[in-house]
């Protein structure tokens, strides 16, 4: 898929993707560590790393605590940014000029493909095809993470898309906040992945989810959980108690992560 015509701003802040990195480090450890057969050379691809490859390099450092051999490839549609990043290359880190289909066209297997703060520039109707292209080079069980953050990375919302035998499954939506703006579920509305942004409207599944989360948050406050962190944690427990498929793993809740994992996959917009 070709990127939008105009040269896009490649704004990148250091540490912007730290919350997502920490989540992957904690919850996708086997995926990052695997070394058997094709996995040995399976890369972490960071697609659209932006003007500077800071976040690619930060993730490489963290993930290599689990897997010192991890190949890391930053892919950029902007040729100047790709060549400027080359000065950061070393044995298992490289930067290439290309698009979403880069790995599948050169035959490099991938274990993890990240595309953060990119599809905001695309049309919502192009998202499905972009996901398919991003996931094509994944080994079975591999993961695409695609979504958005605010500029400093204090609010994050991402699709977790898993390669399964049937194709790419919309496994979960992951939300994270560091509470710098307090907390209410609708805090995430403007940072939803591209296909769901502007879809928090009646009759849309994502609207139903936010309605339930907001009810759970109100209930949490009625129960005395006023402070943002405790309101967030209690809202997640209330949601889970009302059969909404969210994780109540204390590691996630204590750190401001909510993972919504509906059994049929994250619904597409209507
Ligand atoms: C806002 S920056 C995001 C930087 C970084 N990923 C982050 O989250 O901070 C978006 C970058 O994506 C690049 N981009 C857009 N479409 C792309 C595509 N199809 N393939 C690779 N890079 C793309 C743009 O050139 C731009 O540098």
Structural write-up:
- With 270 residues, the chain is an alpha/beta fold.
- Helices cover 31% and strands 22% of the residues.
- It has 9 helices and 8 strands.
- Strands 3-2-1-4-5-6-7-8 form an 8-stranded mixed beta sheet, sandwiched between helices.
- Strand 1, helix 3 and strand 2 form a beta-alpha-beta unit.
- Helix 1 packs parallel to helix 3 (54-63) and helix 7 crosses helix 8.
- The longest helix has 18 residues, at 205-222.
- The model has no long low-confidence stretch (mean pLDDT 95).
- The structure holds S-adenosylmethionine (SAM).
- Residues 1, 3, 8, 10-12, 16-17, 47-50, 55, 75-78, 81, 99-100, 116-118 line the site of S-adenosylmethionine (SAM).
- S-adenosylmethionine binds next to strand 2.
The CATH H-level superfamily of the largest domain is Vaccinia Virus protein VP39
Largest beta-sheet characterization: 8 strands, mixed
In this entry the ligands are: S-adenosylmethionine
Task: Determine the number of helices (DSSP H or I, runs of at least 4 residues).
Answer: 9
**Corresponding CATH architecture of the largest domain:** 3-Layer(aba) Sandwich
Rounded to an integer in angstroms, the radius of gyration calculated over CA atoms is: 18 Å
- Shape, please? globular
Secondary-structure element string = HHEHEHEHEHEEEHHHE
Low-confidence stretches: none
Q: Give the total of beta strands.
A: 8
What percentage of residues falls in helices of 4 or more residues? 25-40%
User: At the third CATH level, what is the topology name of the largest domain?
Assistant: Rossmann fold
Structural class: alpha/beta
InterPro entries: SAM-dependent_MTases_sf
Keywords: Methyltransferase, Transferase
GO biological process, one term: methylation
Protein name: Methylase of polypeptide chain release factor
């Amino acid at each position: 898929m070709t990127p939008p015509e105009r040269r896009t701003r490649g704004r990148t802040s250091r540490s912007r993707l730290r919350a997502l990195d920490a989540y992957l480090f904690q919850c996708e450890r086997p995926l990052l560590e695997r070394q058997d057969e094709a996995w040995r050379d399976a890369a972490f691809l960071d697609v659209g790393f932006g003007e500077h490859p800071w976040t690619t390099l930060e993730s490489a450092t963290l993930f290599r605590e689990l897997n010192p051999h991890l190949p890391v490839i930053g892919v950029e549609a902007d040729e100047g940014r790709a060549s400027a990043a080359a000065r950061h290359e070393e044995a298992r880190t490289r930067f290439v000029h290309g698009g979403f289909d880069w790995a599948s066209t050169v035959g490099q297997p991938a274990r993890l493909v990240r595309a953060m703060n990119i599809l905001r520039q695309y049309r919502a109707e192009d998202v499905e095809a972009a996901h398919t292209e991003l996931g094509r080079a994944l080994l079975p069980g591999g993961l695409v993470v695609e979504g958005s953050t605010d500029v400093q990375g204090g609010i994050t919302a991402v699709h977790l898309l898993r390669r399964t035998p049937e194709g790419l499954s919309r496994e979960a939506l992951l939300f994270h906040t560091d509470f710098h703006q307090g907390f209410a579920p609708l805090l995430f509305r403007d940072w939803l992945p591209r296909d769901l942004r502007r879809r928090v409207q009646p009759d849309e599944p994502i609207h139903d989810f936010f309605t339930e989360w907001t009810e759970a948050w109100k209930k949490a406050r009625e129960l005395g959980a006023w402070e943002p962190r405790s309101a967030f944690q209690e809202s997640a427990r209330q949601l889970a108690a009302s059969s909404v498929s969210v994780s109540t793993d204390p590691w996630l809740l204590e750190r401001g992560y909510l993972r919504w994992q509906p059994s049929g996959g994250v619904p597409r917009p209507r």
